[in-house]
Model the fold of this input.
Amino acid sequence: MTSAEQVSCLIIGSGPAGYTAAIYASRAGLNPVLYQGIQPGGQLTITTEVENYPGYPDGIQGPDMMVHFEKQAARMGADIRYGLATAVDFTGPVHRVQIDEEKWIEAQSVIICTGASAKWLGLESEQRLNGHGVSACAVCDGFFFKGKEVAIVGAGDTAAEEALYLSKICSKVNMIVRRGEMRASKVMQDRVLKTSNIEVHWHSVTEEVLGEKVVTGVRIKNMESGQSTDLAVSAFFVAIGHQPNSDFFKPWIEMDEAGYILTTPGTSRTNITGVFAAGDVQDKTYRQAVTAAGSGCMAALDAERYLSAAGFH
Ligand code: NDP
Done:
C-alpha cells in the first residue's frame, strides 16, 4: 500500500465557497489542495447572467465568474485538481479523504464545500428520458429546443428564472405549478406573469413525461378539477429545488433532516474538530454566490486558527 499524501488544508468543492476558501487559505500560507468535484465551478456554471454579485456593475455570466474565481485561487497558489472526493474517514485526529475511489489524502484540516444538486420528481419516465428532453438545467439545454414548445415544473425563483430564459428561445413555455401560488420572489413572479408565451398551469402535478425515446409531451393533472391533460412539448425541465451534496459525510458529520451540514452558529465549524463546512452544503436559507463566498472565507480563517492553535501551522 502506498502512503497517503499529507496536506495541511484540503478543500472539497469548487463553487464560490471552495474557491474563496482556497484564496484565503493560500494567502495564509496553508498550501491548500482543492478538488473540484463532479461539476468544476459548481452551480454557477449552469446559470446565465449574475446581476447581484457585488463588484460586477454590468453583471457577468455565471461560468465566466467561476473562471475568475478559479484563476484568482490559482494565482494565490492553490493546488487545484480534477477529482471527486468519494469517501472520508474522520475517526482519527488526521482526516482521511479518498479521491476518485482510489487515492487517500491525509489532511490536518478539511473544508467541505460540496454544494447542492438539483432535485427530481422521481417519476420513472423522467429518469428514462433524462438527457432525451428531460433536463434540470434550462440554461444548459434550452438551446436544443429553440423555437419549440416546452414545459417546466416548479414555482421558486429558479423555475421562474428558467421559464423566463426559455421564453426567449422557445415558442411557448408551460409552467407547471402544484399550488395556486408561487414561491418565487414577487419581482420574478411579475415577470413570469407578464410574459405572453408563458402559460402557468396552477394546481397541477406532473403525472408522466410522455415519449418513447425522446420527450413528446407531458401529462399533467389539475388537482382541483381532477382532470388530466396532455401537453405536446419537446422538453421537460425540472426546477424544484436542490439537495445538499453531503451523503458520504453522513456517518461522521452532524446534519439536519434534509442533509444540510450543521455548523456552530457564527462559525464554519462542524462537530468534527478540524473539519469545516461552507457554502450551500450548510446553508439552506440564503444560498447565494456571495453568501457562499463569504462562508468560504470564514472556513479558511477558522481552519487557519485551528491549525495554528493545534500547533500544525
Ligand atoms: P425553492 O425551494 O425555493 O422552490 C422549489 C419549488 O419547487 C417550489 O415552488 C416548490 O413548490 C416546487 N416543488 C418542490 N417539489 C415539487 C414537486 N415534487 N412537484 C412540483 N413542484 C415541486 O427552490 P429554488 O431552486 O427555486 O430556489 C432556491 C433558493 O435560491 C431560493 O432561496 C431562491 O430564492 C434562491 N434563488 C435566487 C435567485 C435569484 O435571486 N436570482 C435565482 C434562483 C434561486 P411549493 O412552493 O409548492 O413548495
About this structure: Residues 160 and 189 are 7 Å apart (CA to CA). Residues 5-117+242-310 form a domain with the FAD/NAD(P)-binding domain fold (CATH 3.50.50.60). The longest strand covers residues 103-112.
